[in-house]
Amino acid sequence: MKNAVGREIPENIPGLNKIRPFEGAFAYQPTGRLVGPKIPVNVPRTEKTLKSIDQAIEATGLRDGMTISFHHHFRNGDYVMLMVIEAVARKGIKDLTIAPSSLSAVQDCLIPYIDRGVITAIETSGIREKLGDLVCSGKLSKPVIIRTHGGRARAIESGETHIDVAFIGAPACDTYGNINGVDGPSACGSLGYPMVDAAYADRVVAITDNLVPHPLYPISIPQSLVDFIVVVDKIGDPNGIATGSLRISNNPKEQVISRYAAEVIEYSGYFKDSFSLQLGSGGASLTAAKFIKEKMLKQKIAASFGVGGITGVMVEMHEQGLIKRLFDTQTFDTPSIRSLKENPCHVEVSASLYANPHSRGPIVNNVDFVILSATEVDVDFNVNVLTGSTGRLMGAPGGHPDTSAGSSVSIIVLPLIRGRRPMIQDRVYTVVTPGETVDVIVTDYGVSVNPKRKDLIDNLRNSSLPVMKIEELQRKAYQMTGIPTPPLPPSDEVVAVVEYRDGSIIDVIRKSK
Amino acid sequence: MKNAVGREIPENIPGLNKIRPFEGAFAYQPTGRLVGPKIPVNVPRTEKTLKSIDQAIEATGLRDGMTISFHHHFRNGDYVMLMVIEAVARKGIKDLTIAPSSLSAVQDCLIPYIDRGVITAIETSGIREKLGDLVCSGKLSKPVIIRTHGGRARAIESGETHIDVAFIGAPACDTYGNINGVDGPSACGSLGYPMVDAAYADRVVAITDNLVPHPLYPISIPQSLVDFIVVVDKIGDPNGIATGSLRISNNPKEQVISRYAAEVIEYSGYFKDSFSLQLGSGGASLTAAKFIKEKMLKQKIAASFGVGGITGVMVEMHEQGLIKRLFDTQTFDTPSIRSLKENPCHVEVSASLYANPHSRGPIVNNVDFVILSATEVDVDFNVNVLTGSTGRLMGAPGGHPDTSAGSSVSIIVLPLIRGRRPMIQDRVYTVVTPGETVDVIVTDYGVSVNPKRKDLIDNLRNSSLPVMKIEELQRKAYQMTGIPTPPLPPSDEVVAVVEYRDGSIIDVIRKSK
């Protein structure tokens, strides 16, 4: 059967319980109730600190077939996942599902444990490098489930993903289990992802290299959610967690794209005092901030809030009074980790508050503008941020579909051509963000507005932007690259499903031939 | 059948589903899972603000037989409960259970709605004045359920109390439903009680007299939990919410009791740097702070945290560096409302984090000393804070049983004699806090230590305190008052049950004759 973005979704996929094809960004009306963890109990003055991860695994009752979760706030500096999986393997436990908030290149170290059957299923946002290739080769017995940040929160809260044990890397943890991410040698900033895990997992283990006296301040995840504490030498490599400030790009192509994106915002009709903003962490998205800032100063307006992955660029605007509040699910660089600790109006939020569609209103629903990158787009405005043009797993939905659906004006920035390949396809290899939620595509050769946004088309007439139909933009690319040869068709076997934020299947990844 | 504090608990109580007698403070091992609310959904840019409470009642689908909740942070200044019940009555809805976090004297205004069958059941912490008398007279068809603050959070999270609609009086609310209690003309400080309601109710309505632009800062209850907003003229009377500072007592009896309580702390063996502390809001409890402070300054030590209902007395110690953190579920006076807004280490916490026994560790579990008042105690160290010696409903368990169970040293302060009545009974009229969790009873005529606390008995030998057996203390009282005549026995009909924090029945209130 074909879903609402025209993708063929098998009615049955071995290893998955139920398949609900994507029917439209807001079509699904959920029923039922949110779930809760096992009712816990704790007598006063219980000692929560255990001697080792091995001991914690015993204490939690972890056994074959269970699901364990992790967070990816340490990015490529993460030591926690490997430490836990090594300990699990030592105990002879097998057939685990891992449900991290995302996976980075560093997690290629997990491959031997997939080979040995310790890990047999994965639910994640991102998956890449050798681990991505392994998935595409059909190595796992169950399809990987790829989710957005909001979708992961939804899946956990609704019980679709049941976490038996959450292992939380804790940059600071006190002796009764209060945790934050802003203190200590492995500070990563916001703990927006594991906030959800801690609230819903049956057992919660904090793993820290920075045990401090009770009570910690500030508290991101409270003691009432943490069962056990393990102290280890190092939970992460600071160089992999965050180094310096994510920089504004000097790449001339990105300069053009950024200037166009800022002009889209200026003329959109939504650029007025107290507007709100999300910027991705890509170069063009960050660079756009420079131009937006100039326009804000000129018009003497300030933003009511900025949200998302927070970077030094947004922190600077906050500290200059140009963005009044920052809502932070993930902190991307050193200046923003410092800001989260110091600035009271830079507020940590959970992935659920940020982007969960099954909520009484996530923060993405209040965003006016979002600027997002893409690996490729298509003439239906569908966006791929997960696979390359030939199907290789190399990215993550992250908050892309969430914020694109929530925002008033969703702006996708990408170069018209990368290498020798055009970036506007007839069909993206994988649909991650549906075209109905994408408003403007900005390239270095021109700007296209989704035909359903007549208001934006009208408003942008007043700008000097090279606005054109998406087909025209595609033609421009083809003039330079020629018509690309279509990628080799994959096999029929599904190795991963791409869930839309509401839990429906928007696309599948098939085994590479 | 008799429970673990020797009270006769009927096996069946009409109107209640299951009766589980109290078996000991930590005897009950819960099973099962926490529950969740109906899965909500909200499309971007939904208008949450409705024109009236009547409209909100329609929007929530409230109907006969449902349960609605409120918070009591406005104390005797609350306008919200009456406004909602009036609107409910206008709609002809009947047979509601109200489940406020507590009831104050001002809620006598609800009596006509009980007479008319609009309200037919009550779950609360406190109940007093004419409403209390009404309950004792057997007017309600179901017994009132009286809970501790931690027990209420437990009941809601476990699904024992299912809230269909929570109505939350919001001193500040933004246009997408973010709420705090520290801003606006009806500022009350912490919103620790309705934080729990908002997370578990099927529908949540914010009622505010202070609608502000999105996004509010700080946020106590986030937009993701709030369905609807109603703006009214006034949600409360500031004079009833908090007036000035709760004062240290000059009453000579209370001075003696306070000095003794402070000396118990000093010699207990737990009085060292980084100790932790809860003080009740009663005069003797607050006055003890003065003496504790002197001892802290002398010994050059500071407390790691203070918790509970926060008062100006604790705020002053915090601002002087004597208490490093304040955890605040309920803010009692004007200086502490100001402090919650201004002091970053004065932190708002939910009633669940504060005191829920079915948690991986509420804050009460970390408390070293708590000083609590009582209406009467008995020779088994059981404490009554709910009824007078003749059974009249006049108080509330509040956090008393929670913090008494959690703390290392639980100190009960009360005068040996009130009026012409001795305050140490053979049996308290109603057991609210079981003697096994009470460590020291301090009166103006002497101090008694629970015999099971041999460590405290030993340590207090070094003090100059008049320590004596509880029977001896009782004898002293009788010498002055004579042996009191026992209260008239009530009828058999149960009009209220007193739940211990774990959901078991520790005592019942019977219909007055």
UniProtKB/TrEMBL annotation, chains A, B:
Pfam families: CitF. It comes from Formimonas warabiya. Keywords: Cytoplasm, Lyase, Transferase. It catalyses: citrate = oxaloacetate + acetate; citrate + acetyl-CoA = (3S)-citryl-CoA + acetate. GO terms for cellular component: ATP-independent citrate lyase complex; cytoplasm. GO terms for molecular function: citrate (pro-3S)-lyase activity; citrate CoA-transferase activity. This is Citrate lyase alpha chain. One of its GO terms (biological process) is acetyl-CoA metabolic process. It is found in: Cytoplasm.
